[in-house]
Amino acid sequence: MNQNNDGITVLTKEDFKVKDPVKWCSGCGGHSVLSSVQGVLPEIGIEKEKIVFVSGIGCSSRFPYYINTYGFHGLHGRAVPVATGLKISNPDLSVWVVTGDGDLLAIGGNHFLHVVRRNIDLNIMLFNNMIYGLTKGQYSPTTPKGGITKTSPDGTVENPLKPGELTIGAQGTFFARVVDTDPKMMKDVFIKAATHKGTSVVEVLQNCVIFANEVHSEITGKEEKDDNQLLLEHGKPMIFGEERNKGLVLEKAQLRVVKIGENGYTINDIQVHDATQSDPVIHYMLARMTLPDFPVAMGVIRAIDSPTYESLLYDQISASKKQSRLKNVDDLLTSGNVFKVK
Amino acid sequence: MSKKAKVVELEEVVVKFAGDSGDGMQLTGSQFSDTSAFIGNDLSTFPDYPSEIRAPSGTVAGVSGFQVHIGHREVQTPGDLADVLVAMNPAALMSNLKWCKTGATIIINVDSFDDKQYQKAGYESDPLKDDSLQGYNLVKAPITSLTRSAVKEFGIDNRTADKTRNQFVSGILFWLFNRDIKIGEDFLKERFSGKPLLIDANIKVLREGYHYAETIEVMNTTFLVNPVETKKGLFRNITGNVATAWGLLAAAEKSGRKLFLGSYPITPASEILQEISHRKHLDAIAFQAEDEIAGICSAIGASFSGRLGATSTSGPGLSLKSEGIGLAVMTELPLVVVDVQRAGPSTGLPTKMEQGDLLQTIYGRHGESPVVVIAASTPSDCFDYAYRACKIAIEHMTPVILLTDGYLANGSELWRIPKMKDLPEINVPTLEDNSPDFYPYLRRPDTLARYWVFPGQKGLRHRIGGLEKADVTGEASHDPINHQLMVEKREAKVQLVADFIPEQEIIGDPAGDLLVIGWGGTHGALVSAVEELRKEGKRISLAVFNYIKPLPKNTGEVLKNFKKRVVCELNLGQFAVYLRSRYPQYEYMQYNKVQGLPFMIRELKAKFNEILKGLDS
């Protein structure tokens, strides 16, 4: 902790580091995400005692051990319901869920849909490395079709899930995507996720150096990233490319990649990103864009205002307390039909 | 109220209401029991409803019943066999006649006894014409037609009119039991509050039924059940599920830890979730989760936050919650799991009772996973045991499984309302902010419980989770010696609960020929059977266990001084297996029933007599 010029204690990144060693593999994408989160927490204006990290099972779910806050390391797939009970019980807490593609989308898939539709104010960090790492290399629900793993020696025959499609399909209010190789992007998006009121889902395209190395390299590679990533900014035209000369237009209800300056397209034709529009159609299109026809959308795709579950619940609790004549359990026990036996 | 009929005073009487699912028998039953409570009778009730919401009308599958046992003396069960049966149609008669005493009074709606209905009910010949009802006291009332003509003035259609038929039955019973009809009218005014037409129509029919009975003197004797004399004070009629919910609320208020119930709807436990969802004014949160697992995990998250976390379910849900219970064992958080048992395995008989989950609650998790297991034994003591489950969970920082069953859950009895100030204190093992030398797995010496520290508290940040914990520090640990130590400490912590629970009581003498042993919801039938035999001079005693794990400290003494012991359960002998493992020095006979039905007092007496006879020879 440091003191600022006004003598007020301010938190720094150091406050959120732990003494014990972080036990992820060297080269694991988790390290950079952890570092980003530790850097973000002093900036979200919440006391450190009120921050809680909840996780399930998997490599990513070791996260609570590596960050100096309250933490809960739960069951495989069940980080979301634990976090739900915690947040509903005490809405003052800033509750973060750290989870992976297997934890959140396979065994925990049911909970994921329901937390998103309820819009509970949780920050869900989905480490998507498209593989089961802790169990050593089986395919996951996001492994690309045809992916060869220990349990798909001839390639998977399953269609992978896209977390963004699910989030928007379940009426999500916040979805963003980042890569583990871009600290600036992570910091910017994590702050937005933390301050969003409602369930924020951040998909981190994370590299598993052992079992799915470079699975995202087409997106994250130094050579390719400018052409293959579209970094979205609210209110700005959707432009990308090494020369910043490519953009998205909306034609015949479909997104299309065009080159500015070719076929009569100017910067004014390029679609402007509106993360706050409640109609999800364009957000859905953005979330599902894939190589090679489209760049992969990065940053905040959707961030809309909508009441949270807990705010509506506590409104009902206040109203009920005002209306009810039964102020305590004694009142309850003696309410309705009671009989005096003499 | 001039009456020519002779009045017979009864010590107790059992009335069974039976009809189609839509005939309003549950309402008539509630009205009859509330009236009984109002005039001071002791009572015990049990609804017997089909799992289908509206099975085809007129069929045996669609028969819905409600049994009420009222007494001038204390009653322990809803009764074995009925003295009075109301049968609204042939199917109701078909399925209930076997549960009537010989010579019982049977009130039938003769309007629905036609060939078509006989066929639907499966009768081969007209039971009113053959001799199958000989020996019963038959009241044939044209209930449908008289009801319809009674409500004609209200201009309502026959379909709506028929919904008030149950009040015609009530009217007959008010006359038959010499009761003030005004009590029944008040019941209707409250039940249909805000719906004046329904109130007027129902009251009209109620009076019509009463006057019909009086005018034609449907019977030449009427009954009077005087108030019970041994119970004094303020009472209410309460079901096991409501009592359970209220016990949780009471413990939350007493401990100052607000209630969070995370549950998924399941028969026969749903009323607990429903009841808590109506109690926001008491700061209670009922979270209807997306599944059973989310139910328990949200409750664990709530407990971590400092709320009193609870989850309610039945057998299939308990199976799904096993892993979550293990997590609460490892994280040593307070958690109450209510299992309203039903007949299994799998979907089984969802609306019927059984005691088949016992061994699952004690042992049914992976690893060494000790929890406290307690069982309620009457509808109203579900309140006490729910309260005690919370008290133990909080004070000992452990999951507690409370076993009730479908019979307790839906059954009701007269309950003497306690005062909050008379309930035992609940000591919450909290710590002040910035307490020095804090470690998450530091234990209190008396209970071995760790402290309950909530996120938001300053200077006490820590992490807990499902990985094995290092002793005291609570860090994740894979050390072999530490694992054995922690396994033993968790078991010892649960065993230490025995220092804080009451000793096991014996009903009857502490020594004798036969000790009858039971647990949980069979209490009423066992007490009745044993007391009746004791009156006959038999050397028989009874121990009904509420504390299962750990067992009360005096259990060995209780079991010792009898020539024979018989463990009576509604399963194939799970408590017997458990007792044999804990007290192998004794021999245990078993009496087991798995029919989805409670024990009958007469079958218990027959069994006990048979054992006692064997001793003589």
Describe how the helices and strands are arranged:
The complex is a heterodimer of chains A (342) and B (617).
Chain A lengths: L1 E2 L5 E2 L19 H11 L10 E5 L14 E4 L5 H11 L4 E7 H7 L1 H10 L3 E7 L34 H7 L4 E6 L3 H13 L4 E6 L11 H4 L4 H4 E3 L7 E2 L5 E6 L2 E6 L21 H7 L8 E8 L5 H15 L5 H5 L5 E3 L1
Parallel strand pairs in A: 3-4, 3-5, 5-6, 6-8, 7-8, 9-13
Antiparallel strand pairs in A: 1-2, 7-13, 10-11, 11-12
Chain B lengths: L5 E5 L1 E9 L4 H14 L3 E7 L14 E9 L10 E6 L2 H7 L3 E10 L5 H7 L15 E5 L1 H8 L7 H5 L2 H12 L4 H11 L4 H21 L4 E5 L7 E7 H16 L3 E5 L6 H8 L7 E4 L3 H14 L2 E6 L1 H17 L3 E7 L16 H6 L8 E4 L5 H16 L2 E7 H5 L1 E5 L46 E3 L14 H17 L15 E8 L3 H13 L4 E6 L1 E3 L5 H6 L1 E8 L4 H9 L6 E4 L8 H16 L1
Helix pairs in contact in B: 1-6, 1-7, 2-3, 4-8, 6-8, 7-8, 9-10, 9-14, 11-12, 17-20
Poorly predicted segments of chain B: none
In CATH, the architecture of the largest domain in chain B is 3-Layer(aba) Sandwich
Number of helices of chain B: 20
Radius of gyration of chain B: 27 Å
Series of secondary-structure elements of chain A, N-terminal to C-terminal: EEHEEHEHHEHEHEHHEEEEHEHHE
Query: What is the CATH fold-level name of the largest domain in chain B?
Result: Pyruvate-ferredoxin Oxidoreductase, domain 3
> Which shape of chain B, going by the Cα principal axes?
globular
Q: pLDDT average of chain B, as an integer?
A: 95
Number of domains of chain B: 3
How are the strands ordered across the major sheet of chain A?
Answer: 4-3-5-6-8-7-13-9
User: What is the CATH superfamily label of one domain in chain A?
Assistant: Thiamin diphosphate (ThDP)-binding fold, Pyr/PP domains
Low-confidence stretches of chain A: none
